[in-house]
Design brief:
Blueprint (H helix, E strand, L loop, with lengths): L4 H4 L16 H22 L9 E2 L6 E14 L2 E14 L3 E5 L6 H9 L7 E11 L4 E3 L5 H4 L7 E4 L3 H4 L6 H12 L5 H14 L5 H5 L8 H13 L5 E5 L7 H18 L2 E5 L3 H7 L2 E6 L2 E7 H6 L4 H8 L49 E2 L5 E2 L12
Helix pairs in contact: 6-7, 7-9, 9-10
Amino acid sequence: MLFGKNKQDKPQKAAPKGNAHYLTAKESREIARSNAKVIRALEKEKKRRIPEEEYLCEMADPANIVEFDDLHTYFFTDAGVSKAVDGVTFSIPKGATVGVVGESGCGKSVTSLSLMRLVQAPQGQIVSGSIRFNLGDKAYDIAKMPIDAMRNIRGKQIAMIFQEPMTSLNPVFRIGYQLDEMVLLHKPGCTKEEAKAHSIEMLKLVGIAAPERVYRCYPHELSGGMRQRVMIAIALSCDPRLIIADEPTTALDVTIQAQILDLLRDIKDKIDGSIMLITHDLGVIAEMADYVVVMYAGRVIESGTTEEIFHDPLHPYTVGLQKSKPVVKRKVDRLYNIPGQVPNPIDMPDYCYFKERCDRCTAKCSGEYPHFVQVSPTHRVACYLYDKEGDND
């Protein structure tokens, strides 16, 4: 990318002389000028026309469908630069379901939107890092792709099921029109009649009992579960290699949640694709995921197989997440919660972001941000408690 971490890590604001929670008019103008300069350069880079060779790349492991490598996605706000994704690195293997968990604001959705190149611009920008996507015969670095080229990938090779279907579906168009649009856009030569037949087949695939009727309906005429099934049908219309499911069951009742999860599991097997499942519900992760990535304050702090994360959690934050989950038939006076607050993303500390909330903090935690420790071939954690080379006393 045009800008590396070193250039972006320079402070965009001077330290306020008065109350630390407020900025002076001069400081606000300095931030605005600095942000505008960086945004113009990044927007120009996204809109450039370049040959395919410039964003071709090699996968580190051909068995992966996606590889995030030191990804940084920032939001340039009036108060400073918010580091929503601050050096994320993990992979999604072919044919696997990878669950991304963490509390609200940890960077889960921004990571997925970076993969789709749907981060809200001009304030939101991918600043540095790589997102390698495996198309089989070749691989693209999505972080370097121009927006025009990305439109050929988005929806066809990578599809996304958004969190709230009512705001994702266009309320003024019928369901059939929105399904047909996806097919006609990504399958050149397809007639309207063929697109309609394909759309009705997709509605049948996701378990809608009266597809012809639903095809003619508007979104407001359907229930929440039906709208979510329509969203899944749209996502699957072009047989994508990767499905991103961003909180796909949040707005649904428990019975419909189970049906949607069963549907996602069955469809993944049918299309032999991969799923990136984003959720804060550890029960959904335990049921659906093969691998788990735990995020905190814009960084990955632990990753491993589902068994490793649930049966042998290492990072104190992962342990806290599991302790805060209600358990059936266990009576407690008060549900556990992790004390403290997430650090301000505009002014992140140099040391471990979880230090102020950690009950196992050591003296070394005040040093530089911890590097990953490889505990097993599939399990790694960013914590000084497992750094054998360091002194944790």
